[in-house]
Amino acid sequence: MNQSKSHIVILPSVGISHLIPFVEFAKRLVSQHNNFHVTCIIPTNGPPPQIAKAIVEALPTTIDAIFLPPVSFDDLVANPLAPLTLTVSRSLSSIRNVLESLLSKTHVAAFLTNFFGIDSLDVVKELNIPSYIFFPSPATVLSLFLHLPKLDESLSSEIRYLPETMKIPGCIPIPAEDFPGGGTFQDRKGDSFKRFLHIGKRISSVEGIIVNSFTDMESGVIIALQDGAGANNPPVYPTGPLVQTGSSSEEDRSGCLRWLDNQPLGSVLYVSFGSGGTLSRAQLCELALGLEMSEQKFLWVVRRPNDESPSAAYLSDKSQFDPSDVLPSGFLERTEGQGLVVTSWVPQTQILSHGAIGGFLTHCGWNSTLECVVFGVPQIVWPLFAEQKMNALILVEDKKVALRPKANENGFVEREEIAKVVKELMEGEEGKRLGQRMGDLKEAAARALSKDGSSTASLSELASKWENVEA
Ligand code: UDP
Fold first, then answer.
1. Against a cut of 0.90, is the pTM above it?
2. d(CA 185, CA 178)
């Protein structure tokens, strides 16, 4: 450890999609500002997944990583989200040990965590380390969190009973049903809402909030947050889009890049629901039949159906299976020349940057969304959980770079609708317009990250603040 450098500690919560943007932030910091060393503390609830180990192995020498001892959730088996939301809360004593050991050797200029790491801020405060939130989701969601305490005070009814959409300064109107967590979030007496409220109150107490977004992506809300419009929030630093760079995963085990090399330019729809998202068996089969009916080429990352493997979230190394066990009979044979189905972890950023890709059917997790922006790939949005419905709203209603298939009254999307939307994106007039707008957004993203860009300026502002923290 080089003690003449300013030392920064980052603590992502458990889950690969939380680790990725944190690490990219650290990589950008040390590559653009020589004077920094970063320690990444990684909480675990079992043996670290292979993908996390591969990310750590590829880190530059100015970033080191420490996997914390695993914590157990045997007492909370009925809550499949507990590992995601509570791993940091159960790792506080090992976080304290790591921080105390670092402080005995060096001065720590800043500590960064995300909303699921909020409970670590008590430890950090006791140790007198300046704390920051790294917000891996859109600024719109950040604004919702920051406004939650006020909103809570002003409401006399349950959020779900409100007839209108929510208007938060600078944001597009948000229907209550699109809030994170869907129904659970809307029960103000429920644990989920209370937890979000707790986060909303705590994140306003930090020295600053770094958000993985950029001005042209969410200009209204970012300007409002930077003006402190009604939220009384700490300074906000948009430093995105921070997307996976280099090869973080093992090589292309599925051979999908080789397959893409043999497809015509812009001809393939990439289909994936992120690191852990999946559909019911019935919906998975309907999607298969819709893709087949569209007659468009596709590359589909299939995960086990969620009605058979509810804890599939946050893909474990054991997730391999035979796709013909879950897809309609004969589908793989019939679509042999049309598509490729894979079940392993794939190098997503390399796929999205491949010339053969013309669109992405996605659950619109924020990392996947920003990756589409960086590589200019228009989308079909199929949000599943977390803040994904809000992300879909931004993409469809505000940026107009995505289409959204309509579900029937039971929330089921039928094959004819899937085929229609896929055809429209891949070869329709509307698809072309979406592609052009996504191209504009891609240029705006590149500008934000350029030498004189807004995100580069935000990062420099933070760096000079941290360099000047007195040792
Ligand atoms: N990802 C990947 N290969 C896969 C699945 C996912 O590289 O097979 C990466 C993807 O590029 C993105 C992240 O995992 O960076 C998923 O994050 P996102 O926010 O899109 O969704 P989440 O996994 O949180 O639902």
1. yes
2. 10
**Ligand 1 pocket test target in 348, 360, 381, 391 with most atoms within 8 Å of CB:** 348
Per residue in 63-112, pLDDT (tens digit) is 999 999 999 888 877 777 788 888 999 999 999 999 999 999 999 999 99
| ipTM confidence score | 0.99
Query: What is the set of domains in the chain, with CATH numbers?
Result: 6-245+447-467 (3.40.50.2000), 256-445 (3.40.50.2000)
> Residues 422-458: pLDDT tens digits?
999 999 999 999 999 999 999 999 999 999 999 999 9
Distance 124 CA to ligand 1 centre (A): 29
Q: Write out the two tokens for 272.
A: 């994936």
